[in-house]
Design goal:
Blueprint: H1 9-17, H2 20-49, H3 55-63, H4 65-80, H5 88-122, H6 133-163, H7 166-177, H8 180-206, E1 214-217, E2 220-227, E3 231-236, E4 241-245, H9 248-251, E5 255-256, E6 264-272, H10 278-290, E7 295-307, E8 312-320, H11 323-344, E9 354-360, E10 363-370, H12 373-381
Antiparallel strand pairs: 1-2, 1-5, 2-3, 3-4, 6-8, 7-8, 9-10
Amino acid sequence: MKTVQIPPWWIRILSVYLPAWLISALVLVLAAGLALLFHRTIIRLVRRFIGPQHIFVQSLISRGYGATRFALVLAALALALPIVPLAPATALVIAESLAVGLTLLIGWAAITAIELAADFYIRRFRIDVADNLLARKHLTQVRVLRRVSESIVIMITIAVALMSIPQVRQFGVSLIASAGVAGIIVGLAARPVLANLIAGLQIALTQPIRIGDAVVVENEWGWIEEIASTYVVIQIWDWRRLIVPISYFLEKPFQNWTRMSAELIGTVLLWVDYTTPVDRVREKLNEIVKNSKLWDGRVVNLQVTDASEHSIQIRALATARNSQDVWDLRCEIREKLVAFLRETYPDALPKRRTELHALDGNSALPRFVPDTPYARAGRQARG
């Protein structure tokens, strides 16, 4: 036996003067407005009684403000729906809409919970210190896993919301049943996206790169600025941004200067003449490095690493706390060593030697002959 719900007396009185659809709209709008007013009042009271020292509660209120407001509006509409004079078909549509809203609310709450957990976990680590390797490791893991988790939650929420609508559910079932070639095409089209999502999980676990790592990718030197679900943003040294797919770091070789430690050895290469006093240059390097605020006090060295028929190559080494400091330290060493050689030993700068010879007895035009082993051998052969 079907029970018939009798509307309240005030709705029966209003129905004498107003049409049913207008009464229903007014009641639903009034219920939503009261829910918003109640939510705003409660949030103000809670914030007043909870001091700023309760960081977790304050952050929970701020992050969950929209979700709790949406929840109260849904609850108010669900309570008001049985008493409004609506046609059964209209009431069913509104009820289905509320069911979809509830599903979206659950997904929203899940995403908020993931963001809160990630933020409070990251707060334990500081990335603005010199030795931030552990902090960057956890920051990379949390950010990648959070984005992947949010993507999964969004996909599941949308799927469940569509399945709660009978018309869309039947369409989805028939589409899956007749997938065939379309399913293969969709699978092939989605392969890059799925590959990047899986690559993101692999990077979060194995961590070939982290947030803040100094890397060389496609002959560009920069820092890992952001690791998204499907791509990585690299800040180039001149502030450009290089965007590459996240699967790139699992399929192609690249350089990571801070893989094991934030501390680096900077290298400066100079070509100088054979007459250069290497000991004096080594003493000057020690003086430059020890007076620099960028040096971390570990390694400083200068060696002759190569020699050619014209000049020798000297290599200066010095360590710094991080990639930015080592770049600036290299530039400082290079600039000051060149200035030292130019001012103190100008003959030490690389040069090409030439000899002047007359063409013959009847010509006064000189010619330039390079002073190389091949040229000397030719002159000796000619006598």
